[in-house]
Write a structure and sequence with these properties.
By secondary structure, the protein is an alpha/beta fold. It has 2 domains: about 70 residues, Ribosomal protein L30/S12 (60s Ribosomal Protein L30, Chain: A, 2-Layer Sandwich); about 160 residues, Alpha/beta knot (3-Layer(aba) Sandwich), CATH 3.40.1280.10. The chain is built from 10 helices and 10 strands. The strands form 2 sheets. Strands 7-6-5-9-8-10 form a 6-stranded parallel β-sheet. The protein has a 4-stranded mixed β-sheet with strand order 1-4-2-3. The chain is elongated, with a radius of gyration of 19 Å. The model has no long low-confidence stretch (mean pLDDT about 90).
């Protein structure tokens, strides 16, 4: 039997029910949860989809929780559809969509991956690729922070070097994010593109840098050396959105 995922928090569970990317199989709800917009929507969606809801004591949710922030709701769900870089690119080609991908090396903090997924959803990213052996994958904490991003944006776990080789063969331009690059608004980010970010502590490695067509930087004031990786990722993603909408760089 496949291991099911655990979703924690009202917003996370509601997003999974709204988007219907995978079946939600069971919901546990705080027996003292009062009627309100969120609880009412959750119950209505669960009823419409035939998902059983069990009222339980808060202490039961506390014991079951993996995040410590369940907000009175925990759900069990089937795993999300799995993609490889090849299958993801093939799916985008079939839908005649330009690839917009984000690769992040060694994301050790679950909150960072969750925040990247939330920004990825808002900016139209088609997939986030993280290493197979290093960093974090999807977890209850990532899903909670992503607030729906994990439901919509595929997370692919593959070696980044091989993933970039596949991406480049597909004709997708690769832009790395590093403080030694050109200002991001001077780098063309329109069309098919893959953004590459380094780990939280090490930045973009020399190996990954060599596989990039160009390096873009987020210029900083205030004598700052760098930004949190999820913040840098968000700024780069939305700079692409700005360029696509305005048709200009600079």
């Amino acid at each position: 039997m496949a291991v099911r995922d655990q979703l924690e928090g009202r917003n996370v569970v509601i997003e999974a029910l709204r988007r219907q990317r995978r079946p939600v199989t069971r919901i546990w709800l705080d027996e003292r949860a009062r009627p309100g917009a969120k609880v009412d929507e959750l119950l209505a969606l669960a009823d419409a989809q035939g998902v059983p809801v069990q009222r339980v004591a808060r202490q039961t949710l506390d014991r079951r929780s993996a995040t410590g922030a369940h907000n009175g709701v925990i759900a069990e769900a089937e795993p999300l559809p799995e993609f490889t870089v090849v299958s993801l690119l093939g799916d985008l080609a079939w839908r005649k969509q330009d690839p917009f991908l984000v690769l992040v090396d060694e994301v050790q903090y679950e909150h960072n991956l969750g925040a990247i997924l939330r920004s990825a959803l808002g900016s139209g990213v088609n997939g986030v690729i993280v290493p197979t052996r290093r960093g974090k994958g999807l977890s209850p904490v990532v899903a909670r922070v992503a607030m729906g991003g994990a439901e919509e944006v595929p997370v692919v776990r593959e070696g980044l070097s091989s993933a970039l080789a596949t991406i480049r063969r597909a004709g997708v331009r690769v832009v790395g994010c590093d403080m030694k690059g050109r200002p991001m608004w001077k780098v063309a980010l329109t069309g098919p593109i893959a953004l590459v970010l380094g780990g939280e502590d090490k930045g973009l490695s020399p190996t990954l840098r060599k596989r990039c067509d160009e390096i873009a930087a987020v210029p900083l004031a205030g004598q700052l050396d760098s930004l949190n990786v999820s913040v840098s990722a968000a700024l780069m993603m939305f700079e692409k959105v700005r360029q696509e909408r305005s048709g200009t760089t600079g």
